[in-house]
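tool=predict chain=A
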Amino acid sequence: MRLSFDRSVEGFRQTFLAWLADNRPSPEEMAADPALSSGHAPPWARRWTRTMFDAGWLVPGWPPERGGRNASPLEQLVYLEEMARADVPRSTNPQGLGIIAPSILDYGSEEQIGSYAMPILRGERTGCLGMSEPGAGSDLAALSTRAVLDGDQFVINGQKVWTSGANHADFCFLFCRTDPSAAKHKGISVVLVDIDTPGVSVRPLPELVAPEYPELNEVFFTDVVVPAANLVGTLNDGWAMANGSLAHERGMVWVSSVMALDASMRHMLDAAPGWLSKLRSGERAVAAAMVADLYVDTQAVRCLGYRGFGKLMRGGSAPEQALMKLFSSETRQRLGLVAAEVEGAASVTVSPQGARGPFLAVDEASTWMEQYFRSFGLTISAGSSEIQRNIIAEKVLGLPRS
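tool=predict ok
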């Protein structure tokens, strides 16, 4: 089977590649001023996001006024492929661009769109997603952070955890309980909270990899007062919004899972000849076989992605998304481990520059061992491997719920 696109889609690809070659930030520029977390946007990242927005290449499937060019689904697919191959992010705030801004555009007021969503698209502001809590990880309905309506304002108390990029974000898209007497999933709302509001405290969580650049955070809310106008959508309708936000997150799977795996595989193939030349013949054969297996798995993930995409284009559902998320994140974990094992002692050596690179799909300034450690988070985000296996068992295999 040979996969190919029609002439108009390939023309779209070439138009984008020509624009990208003339406008993209250089690797040196990105490395000199790295993004330190998914909520941090250094000057080059803000300029780059705005450049893409103005040219209609930030979200090409959207209308021009939203940073797009009304691209077809297939055109969006080849665009995402080329962005991944270029090793340059559309935004260093992927949750803001991929989840928060679309959710505000779907549910927010015109004022909220103008103050929060559009600044994300123009690279002016960054947002973090306030969902998980110490007692509400995979079960959002168990959240306990309270937002009490008092006249024309909310008073918020509670705690979030595992909040990516909150240490650098400008605001939080906060899920909180607004009706404690209602059924668990019916008393939830979403409120926009600026991080510099009095009573908001962000505490980065120490990490094994690059502890000087923490990504995950605890966020505490103590008598935080925000205007009632910061309510997104209608009161107590946050559960529908959560499903919408998670749908946007799952829509990022192709980018965050498949494309990232493909980029990691390309970096491994580039490094493999140097590794293999240093091994004895027997070891070389074993290592080459492991690399070949990973390459085959990477292509299988890509085919799963195309298959699911084709179903979605025909208006159907795509349970392949769960298979793709599970297989791609676990394959990337195996890739990091194999690379670290084959490379040997060099896999734990920091680059000569002593730098830990920008927040990109593949971080060339980090070691393979560090990338292996990071891969464990990939098996949790956007739905853990355990949850994906449940979805596959019930939706794909038709097994009864356990």
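Residues 273 and 288 are 9 Å apart (CA to CA). The longest helix spans residues 281-313.
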